[in-house]
Amino acid sequence: MLSTSYSLTAEINRQSALETQIAQLQTNISSGVQVHVASDDPLAAAQIATIGRQQANESVYTANVKVAQATTSLVDTNLTGVQTSLNRAKELMLEASNGTMNDSDRTAAITELQGIASDLDSAANQTDVSGNPLFVKGTAATQIPIGNGTTVAAGDSYDEVFGSVTLKDGSTTSIASVLAASIAALQTTDPTARTTAVNSSLDALDSSADHISDAQTDIGLRETQLNNASDALATSAINLTDQRSSFEGTDLTVAAATLSSKMTTLNAAQSVLATLSKISLFDKIT
């Protein structure tokens, strides 16, 4: 009788373990995940944790890249507008240099140059969607992390873009000063002095245009760097997801086959249990 009772208890325990395994397999199949806690597979769990940290880091980098791309796009558009304004200022000064402008024309040109100067001042003080300046005054532009050990400046330095134009004589000045000098040149009453001032202004405007062109090239290079970083992060995200799935994901074919096998075993075991139960009951009666 003891032997039969022991066998019955052992079989109940075995079936209970099978039911637990079947329930786990069903969960794995329905969730698509086979490592829920570290004890399910310690080695795989360690790999999953490492990949998870990398995914978290790259998620931040991806967000940073998007913010930086939006900012560099604004800077690029801004500089294009600045270049257009400088070109228009040069056109006005060229008209003045040919000696055909009368007093009325000069007054109109001065008014337009004053408008251009105001537009350039607005451009130099433009902000991004978060209210941060595109051109930071008094310091270098903030470096944004876009990868492990990789940063990029989305904005620009106000001083470098608008305050450090190198003139032909080697001296430096600001774009605002160049425009102010152009306006002053047209306001000069003495024709000879005015001609000299206008010609000097034309040289300064050329230097300003070259300076902004260099800034546009620089921002273009950073935009390319950001685009490349975006593509690399997108590819990495796919690879990391695949790697994580290889450790964490459920192999549905294997899991389904294992589930079917264990359910068959359980059904057979339940038949055995029913037989043992009858034997046990008979022992008690006799």
Overall geometry comes to rod-shaped
Provide the CATH top-level class of the largest domain. Mainly Alpha
What is the CATH homology-level superfamily of the largest domain?
f41 fragment of flagellin, N-terminal domain
Let me know the average pLDDT: 85
What separation lies between the terminal Cα atoms? 10 Å
Tell me about the biggest sheet? 2 strands, parallel
CATH topology-level fold name of the largest domain: f41 fragment of flagellin, N-terminal domain
Are there runs of 5+ residues with pLDDT below 50, and where? Answer: none
* Alpha-beta classification: mainly alpha
Compute the number of helices.
Answer: 7
Helix content: over 70%
Describe this structure in words.
There is one protein chain. This protein is mostly helical. It folds into two domains: 2-32 and 251-285; 63-247, f41 fragment of flagellin, N-terminal domain (Up-down Bundle). The protein is 76% helix and 6% strand. The chain is built from seven helices and six strands, in the order αααββββαββααα. Strands 1-4 form a two-stranded parallel sheet. Strands 2-3 form a two-stranded antiparallel ribbon. A two-stranded antiparallel ribbon has the order 5-6. A hairpin with a 2-residue loop joins strand 2 and strand 3. The chain is rod-shaped and about 125 Å long. The chain starts with a helix and ends with a helix. The mean pLDDT is 85.
